[in-house]
Write a structure and sequence with these properties.
alpha+beta; 5 strands; three-stranded antiparallel β-sheet
Length: 208
């Protein structure tokens, strides 16, 4: 099989697939090595980018799939009329983040971290296919343990959980924390704690 034919075959298979196609499977189909198939996919992705196409070839969840170009997200959102109803609520996103970073984790452990009962939000995540049961806690009660799904990786555009950003990237440095503490510090002058103090003083001066 020529290189051109192999690239066309990869395009056809990935386009027809409903899930990311593993490079190993593509290699079997086009009878080339996995390394060569990955190189061809990189070439295809570069060609699409250079020709300013409306889609991209990406590697997510351990395989390759076509996605709309990130720059065109506003147009895609308009097309998907029910997108607003499909969005997750803030509590659901918070619960999903805890599962993603702490998995496998039980419902009780998630509730302990959030400080609220997460039964309803966890049920929503299960229905949407972002979370699934991955085992049982060997301790007392053998609680169900939850983890994220392949669909979760696909929606976030991640190849594996190792690609999740480090939580340390979101922790503010010491100077920011110090500035926040100074901003929240209460003054010893009660007049300065009253947000209406200046307005009242102004009114009094006007009356006089």
């Amino acid at each position: 099989m020529s290189e051109l034919e192999a690239k066309r075959a990869i395009e056809a298979v990935v386009l027809a697939a409903t899930e990311p196609v593993e490079p190993r499977l593509l290699a079997q189909l086009v009878e080339l090595s996995v390394v060569r198939v990955e190189a061809l996919c990189d070439e295809l992705a570069r060609e699409y980018e250079e020709s300013c196409r409306g889609f991209v070839l990406v590697r997510v969840a351990g395989g390759y799939r076509y996605q709309t170009h990130p720059d065109l997200a506003p147009y895609v959102e308009r097309f998907v009329l029910d997108a607003r109803h499909a969005r997750l609520s803030a509590p659901a996103l918070e619960t999903l983040a805890i599962v993603a970073y702490k998995q496998p984790i039980s419902r009780g452990q998630i509730s302990a971290i959030r400080g609220v009962n997460v039964e309803a939000t966890l049920h929503t995540l299960l229905q949407r296919g972002y979370v699934e049961e991955v085992g049982r806690d060997p301790g007392p009660g053998t609680a169900v343990l939850y983890g994220t799904t392949v669909s979760f990786l696909e929606r976030l555009g991640l190849d594996s959980l190792a690609d999740l950003p480090s939580l340390g990237d979101f922790v503010p440095d010491a100077s920011v924390v110090e500035a926040l503490e100074r901003g929240l510090h209460l003054s010893e002058d009660p007049r300065l704690e009253d947000p209406l103090h200046e307005d009242r003083a102004s009114d009094a001066a006007t009356t006089d």
